[in-house]
Design goal:
This protein has 308 residues and is an alpha/beta fold. The chain folds into 3 domains: 2-67, Beta Barrel (OB fold (Dihydrolipoamide Acetyltransferase, E2P)), CATH 2.40.50; 73-80 and 84-229, P-loop containing nucleotide triphosphate hydrolases (Rossmann fold), CATH 3.40.50; 243-306, Ribonucleotide Reductase Protein R1, domain 1. The protein is built from 8 helices and 13 strands. The strands form 2 sheets. It has a 5-stranded mixed beta barrel with strand order 1-2-3-5-4. A two-stranded antiparallel ribbon has the order 6-7.
């Protein structure tokens, strides 16, 4: 039978099909034949799979995973593989907040690089606009000028701006990703009250959120939206990108890069670099450029260590 993975919890997978749902494990050959796979998991939410149902009608085994349109992953901390988060996405909605926890556009930039590489559109949703200092909203929009990323400033508490996000989700498979405490579940509850996702308060001592979503899971909504909610991520690492390739994933660099003196150009140490001139002229946001340099350094360190 054919189905789609809608939840991953440990070594178990919920596969949804025309007849309902089935709790599955991986077939033996799928678990064992993974030496050359870049991912640390054989299947993820969003994967289209072939599976067999056991005699009990409620459990089964995934036999094969069909070819993916895209795969959204991050560096698997402490291991050499990549943490496969979800597959076959229409878009990624990266959620941040203006305060408690504070805005982290460096995190967003890394997610955006992954999205550009996988050809998955990324949308930025900044929650808790009711806590924003004057000018912070304009700062975010200015930071991402010329990137093409849609920016939504919302308050899940008051409802301000939330309805503007609904058309962005309708009819699409969207991955919601962000740090604990930014309000992903609260935002989804405001949009779709029938979800009744569990939420929690921010820690008064650390200012950080506590995990309320513990598994990656997909839900289908009445307007045709399908949403994948994820546990909070403190960081988002990149590993399968060569340092010299990084600048090609910064959309706001694209129309300037052809006028650099050197090709390729890392826009770091090279003279007569058009991108650096655009930063100096205020055409590219300086903090966005610094974020690029930080990612570039991390990739260089990773590759130096890997191939030493």
């Amino acid at each position: 039978m054919n189905g789609v993975v809608t939840k991953v919890y440990g070594r178990y997978y919920t596969v949804t099909h025309d007849g309902g749902g089935c709790n599955c494990v991986l077939m033996g050959r799928l678990r064992l034949g993974r030496e050359n796979d870049r991912f640390s998991e054989a299947a993820a939410v969003g994967d289209l799979v072939e599976f067999a149902i056991n005699d009990d009608g409620e459990t089964g085994a995934i036999i094969s995973v069909r070819e993916r349109r895209n795969a959204f992953s991050r560096k698997d901390k402490g291991r050499t593989g990549e943490d496969l988060i979800a597959a076959n996405l229409d878009q990624v909605v990266v959620v941040q907040s203006f305060a408690r926890p504070r805005l982290n556009l460096r995190f967003v930039d890394r997610v955006l690089v992954r999205g550009v590489k996988e050809r998955v559109p990324v949308c930025l949703c900044v929650n808790k606009s009711d806590l924003a200092v004057e000018g912070h909203g304009e700062y975010v929009r200015d930071y991402y000028r010329d990137t093409g990323i849609p920016v939504h400033l919302v308050s899940a508490l008051t409802g301000d701006g939330v309805e503007d996000l609904r058309p962005q989700l309708s009819g699409r498979l969207s991955l919601f990703i962000g740090s604990s405490g930014v309000g992903k579940s609260t935002l989804l509850n405001r949009l779709y009250p029938q979800l009744a996702l569990r939420t929690s308060e921010i820690s008064a001592s650390t200012g950080k959120g506590r995990h309320t979503t513990t598994n990656v899971a997909m839900v289908t909504l009445p307007d045709g939206a399908r949403v994948i909610d994820t546990p909070g991520l403190r960081e988002f690492g990149l590993m399968d990108i060569e340092p010299r390739e990084l600048e090609g994933y910064f959309e706001d660099f694209r129309r300037h890069r052809q006028r650099c003196r050197f090709t390729p150009c890392t826009h770091d140490h090279e003279p007569d670099c058009r991108v650096k001139k655009m930063v100096e002229a205020g055409k590219i946001h300086e903090e966005r450029y610094i974020s690029y340099l930080n990612i570039l350094r991390s990739l260089q360190e990773y590759h130096d260590t890997r191939y030493a």
